[in-house]
Amino acid sequence: MPLSLARPPGARDSGCGGRGRAAVGSADVTSQRTSLTPPEDARAPVRHPEAPAPGEPLGSHYDQCFGCGTGQPHGLHLDARAGEGVDVTAEFTVKPEHQGAPGLAHGGVLTTALDETLGSLNWLMHTISVTGRLETDFRQPVPVGSVLHLEARVTAVHGRKIYCTATGRVGGPEGPVAVRADGLFIEVKVEHFISNGRDEEIQAAMNDPDQVRRARAFEVNP
Ligand SMILES: CCCCCCCC(=O)SCCNC(=O)CCNC(=O)[C@H](O)C(C)(C)COP(=O)(O)OP(=O)(O)OC[C@H]1O[C@@H](n2cnc3c(N)ncnc32)[C@H](O)[C@@H]1OP(=O)(O)O
After folding, report:
1. Ligand 1 center from residue 171 Cα (angstroms)
2. Residue nearest to atom 52 of ligand 1 (CA)
3. pTM of this prediction?
4. Which stretches are tagged as biased composition: Basic and acidic residues (predicted)?
């Protein structure tokens, strides 16, 4: 998947460490050349042969996860489904506990929904990865009671770096895009969680055979 790093016409170098920030008038906008742009020698993502079948629900990776856990009363309760490629879909119903302004979803919660949907792409590639960078565009407010129709896909892979993108639509799966994000996930080993997580939750997770099975699934079938 060759990907051009050419700058858009008129983009100026702002000198921000190669991250591609360009000043236009008084606004600070992101040019096409950022750390979210795959390098030219990035490869196309590959669907793992043992990835869940298209349409299959992926389930929660951890029951206390704020994004997908069934044990989190105020969580988002996302349950993504596998797509046909290296992609997933999910729905998020905005509840009163997700408000930022009166009757509207909090932007951070919407970003979490995008982040979690992107995270569930792990199941399609049989990798374990975490968010390194995430850039969200908020295009229209999302009222409480709305169903956000989420879609995420991997666009490119370069070493441990997984480039991906997600949208959240309102009014149906074909409705207007209310939020979107580009992400860079970084592949990690299970030890990332064991050595960084708080002891009591790590011990509880390690004492749960079902949790251990899910955490190690990709290592057994690399
Ligand atoms: C199990 C699935 C759960 C899914 C839940 C939903 C997703 C989440 O919310 S995950 C939680 C939020 N994320 C985190 O907590 C991650 C915290 N960050 C970290 O632990 C580390 O910074 C980590 C693991 C991302 C990278 O550290 P490390 O393993 O040392 O990798 P490092 O060598 O620094 O970087 C690897 C490559 O990624 C690049 N990279 C790393 N971070 C970034 C970044 N923020 N922006 C751009 N590039 C980055 C590096 O430049 C490097 O590139 P190259 O290979 O070309 O040199």
Report:
1. 34
2. 161
3. 0.88
4. 40-50
Distance 127 CA to ligand 1 centre (A): 14
Q: Which of 138, 134, 73, 130 is nearest to 101 (CA)?
A: 138
CA–CA distances in Å: residue 201 to residues 7, 63, 65, 204, 207: 46, 11, 12, 5, 10
- For residue 130, the CA-to-ligand 1 centroid distance in Å is 6
State the first-to-last Cα distance of the chain, in angstroms, to the nearest integer: 23
Q: Name the residue of 63, 130, 196, 212 to mutate for ligand 1: max ligand atoms within 8 A of Cβ.
A: 130
Place of tokens 């969680």: 193
| Residue 94 CB coordination number (10 Å) | 23
Q: In this predicted complex, what is the ipTM?
A: 0.98
Domains delineated in the chain: 1-34 (no CATH), 81-188 (3.10.129.10)
CA dihedral 161, 209, 205, 109 (to 10 degrees): 60
How many angstroms does the Cα of residue 67 sit away from the middle of ligand 1? 19
pLDDT digit string (tens) for 121-156? Answer: 999 999 999 999 999 999 999 999 999 999 999 999
Name the token pair of 34: 């950022």
